[in-house]
Amino acid sequence: MGLDENQLCGDLMCNWVLEHPHASICTSEAKLMEKTRYNKYKFDHDRIGISGGATYAHETVAFYLANPSRDFRVDPI
Question: Mean pLDDT in the chain?
Fold first, then answer.
């Protein structure tokens, strides 16, 4: 079963990331996004969501559409 279809693995990964915030890929992603934008903008790693697979990406977009806020989605280049 693919990772995007395996909700148990997704839940375990979310828990691991919350328990290990300094090891999170979101921290590195935030730094990379700042660097590619010449450090003109700051990105909060706590507000970055990274998805893998079509199903999980669809669920993430549906969540953001159902709960609008100041968050936005940036597609990888």
Answer: 75
Question: The pTM is what?
Answer: 0.46
Structure tokens at 6: 């395996």
- Mapping DSSP to helix (H, G, I), strand (E, B) and coil, where does residue 48 land? coil
Torsion, CA 11, CA 15, CA 21, CA 22, rounded to 10: -90
The two tokens of residue 29 are 């992603």
Helix residue ranges, H only, 1-77: 7-19, 25-36, 54-66
- Please tell me the distance from the alpha carbon of residue 9 to that of residue 2, in angstroms, as a whole number: 10
Dist CA 60 CA 42 (whole Å): 22
